[in-house]
């Protein structure tokens, strides 16, 4: 066994900053070991800078978009720390669109038409830990009519999008936004039911995204003449990093954003499928060569059941598989649980569901990708105080859990409200919570107090002329703190 040289604190800090933002280095007193002789545990410190990227909202001239930015307030004893959060147009001549200077209070802005830009932005100081932003767009008429909602995301290098399509009547576009000062190079691959869909002349390879700019790529152009009803897109970067989200428009059905699935895992949770869904189609993909056999269960308010006729799904390695679950929720909002049939043979998969509400000419489309647990704290920024517009779904897949849900003031005022909820194992509980006297968009924050992991999603309903227009956004751990080792801690690493 050989020993590596001890890591320096500066090296550890640089690695942490690359992964999660810059962490405060006001570490505990490094004056030696505790009285019991044991090494001090690493401290968790709030991040000092966060970065987000938002796609361009819509190509429609009659689109109305609301942007909302929010950072949860710090706990008692946090002092008078200050900070700032700004979202700018994603161009070299960027202009401020939204600016926030105080945690605990959401700020909003609006945009109209197809000229609304993609956005990039950062939060610093007290605004950085847990900073979240959301864009919600409503298009009243036309081919792409509907409500589109998505959370702005941190830029990355690897994204999976199950449930994309190149079929007739579908228009799927990958929005790529580069927040950095150097160009990014992106590859996009499509996997259908027969595996990798080959493209001529490497159309999906080495796509250049200029610095401080955004680029939109039609998935149909990557495989001309090939119609894939259900497919999985894999977006990776060869150089740089980007924000990546898929925008879907389906003729006669509606439009919405399709966010990336959580990283491949042996068990997945797809939270917040609406109670009145008339069509639910699961799309799953195995990135590796091994096949996966998945058990399907729907977690509702009374427990988890297996959908009749769709108790299991076999997914071949490197191929996309689907399951038509029809109106599986039948009047009760639920979450889909995917687990390996054989716990000893868990194969990593990614997944998403395409959800339709309504029928005939009154249909509306939405997507629910697999998402990780909300962790210690998670927030969705844009919710509406009007009655029956916002519904929160909370799912505990493995063990009972207690969470605290807080509704912030609205962008136009109001008093915050909070409620503690116990979620039984294997169930999905729903909750409608809004600030007292709230006006304008408000944020919902979910904090896990005890028990097992909780997955959460919010459905925002904005009906229009009899169409149940909606969008679903999942809650993701806000990673507002990072682990910073004590300066006196032995950081040497042993390896074989």
Q: What this model shows, in words?
A:
- With 496 residues, the chain is mainly beta.
- 2% of the residues lie in helices and 48% in strands.
- It has one helix spanning 9-20, and strands at 2-3, 43-46, 49-54, 64-70, 83-89, 96-100, 107-112, 119-125, 132-139, 146-151, 158-164, 170-178, 184-192, 195-196, 207-209, 213-218, 231-239, 243-250, 254-258, 268-273, 277-285, 292-300, 303-305, 312-315, 320-326, 334-340, 350-357, 364-369, 377-383, 390-396, 401-407, 417-423, 427-431, 442-451, 455-461, 470-474, 481-484, 494-495.
- The strands form 10 sheets. Strands 11, 13, 14, 15 and 17 form a 5-stranded antiparallel β-sheet that branches.
- Residues 1-37 and 490-496 have low confidence and may be disordered.
Q: How many angstroms separate the termini?
A: 5 Å
Strand content: over 45%
Rough outline: globular
Largest sheet: 5 strands, antiparallel
Provide the structure class. mainly beta
Given the structure, what is the number of helices? Answer: 1
Beta-strand segment tally: 38
Poorly predicted parts: 1-37, 490-496
Helix proportion range: under 10%
Mean pLDDT: 88
Please state the CA-atom Rg, rounded to the nearest Å.
Answer: 22 Å
List strands and helices in order, with pairings.
Elements: E1 2-3, H1 9-20, E2 43-46, E3 49-54, E4 64-70, E5 83-89, E6 96-100, E7 107-112, E8 119-125, E9 132-139, E10 146-151, E11 158-164, E12 170-178, E13 184-192, E14 195-196, E15 207-209, E16 213-218, E17 231-239, E18 243-250, E19 254-258, E20 268-273, E21 277-285, E22 292-300, E23 303-305, E24 312-315, E25 320-326, E26 334-340, E27 350-357, E28 364-369, E29 377-383, E30 390-396, E31 401-407, E32 417-423, E33 427-431, E34 442-451, E35 455-461, E36 470-474, E37 481-484, E38 494-495
Antiparallel strand pairs: 1-38, 2-37, 3-8, 4-7, 4-9, 5-6, 5-8, 9-10, 11-17, 12-16, 12-18, 13-14, 13-15, 13-17, 18-19, 20-26, 21-25, 21-27, 22-23, 22-24, 22-26, 27-28, 29-34, 30-33, 30-35, 31-32, 31-34, 35-36
């Amino acid at each position: 066994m050989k020993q590596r040289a001890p890591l320096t604190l500066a090296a550890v800090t640089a690695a942490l900053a690359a992964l999660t933002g810059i962490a405060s280095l006001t570490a505990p007193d490094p004056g030696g070991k505790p009285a019991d002789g044991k090494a001090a545990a690493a401290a968790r410190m709030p991040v000092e800078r966060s970065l987000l990227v938002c796609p361009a909202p819509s190509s429609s001239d009659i689109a109305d978009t609301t942007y909302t930015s929010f950072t949860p307030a710090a706990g008692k004893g946090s002092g008078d720390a200050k900070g700032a959060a700004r979202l700018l147009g994603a161009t070299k001549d960027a202009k401020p669109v939204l600016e926030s200077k105080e945690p605990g209070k959401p700020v909003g802005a609006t945009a109209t038409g197809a000229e609304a830009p993609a956005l990039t932005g950062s939060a610093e100081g007290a605004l950085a830990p847990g900073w979240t932003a959301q864009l919600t767009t409503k298009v009243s008429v036309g081919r792409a009519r509907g409500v589109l909602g998505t959370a702005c995301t941190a830029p990355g290098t690897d994204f999976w999008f199950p449930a994309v399509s190149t079929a007739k009547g579908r228009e799927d576009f990958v929005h790529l936004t580069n927040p950095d000062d150097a160009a990014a190079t992106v590859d996009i691959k499509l996997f259908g039911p027969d595996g990798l869909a080959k493209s001529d002349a490497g159309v999906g390879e080495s796509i250049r995204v200029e610095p401080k700019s955004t680029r939109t790529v039609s998935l149909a152009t990557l495989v001309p003449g090939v119609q894939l009803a259900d497919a999985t897109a894999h977006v990776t970067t060869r150089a740089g990093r980007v924000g990546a989200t898929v925008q879907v428009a389906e003729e006669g059905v509606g439009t919405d954003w399709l966010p990336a699935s959580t990283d491949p895992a042996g068990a997945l949770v797809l939270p917040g499928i609406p109670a009145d869904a008339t069509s639910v189609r699961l799309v799953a993909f195995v990135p590796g060569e091994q096949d996966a056999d998945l058990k399907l269960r729907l977690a509702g308010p009374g427990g988890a059941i297996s959908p009749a006729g769709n108790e299991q799904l076999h997914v071949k390695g490197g191929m996309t598989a689907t399951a038509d679950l029809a109106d599986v929720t039948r009047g009760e909002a639920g979450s889909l649980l995917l687990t390996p049939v054989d716990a000893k043979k868990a194969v990593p998969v990614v997944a998403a569901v395409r959800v339709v509400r309504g029928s005939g000419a009154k249909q509306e489309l939405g997507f629910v990708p697999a998402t990780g647990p909300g962790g210690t704290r998670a927030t969705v920024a844009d919710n509406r105080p009007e009655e029956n517009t916002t519904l929160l779904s909370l799912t505990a897949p493995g063990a009972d859990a207690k969470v605290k849900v807080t509704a912030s003031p609205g962008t136009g005022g109001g008093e915050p409200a909070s409620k503690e909820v116990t979620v039984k194992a294997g169930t999905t509980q729903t909750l409608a919570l809004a600030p007292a006297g709230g006006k304008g968009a408000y944020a919902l924050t979910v904090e896990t107090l005890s028990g097992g992991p909780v997955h959460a999603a919010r459905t925002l309903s904005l009906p229009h002329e009899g169409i149940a227009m909606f969008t679903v956004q999942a809650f993701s751990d806000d990673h507002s703190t990072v682990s910073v080792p004590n300066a006196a801690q032995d950081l040497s690493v042993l390896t074989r």
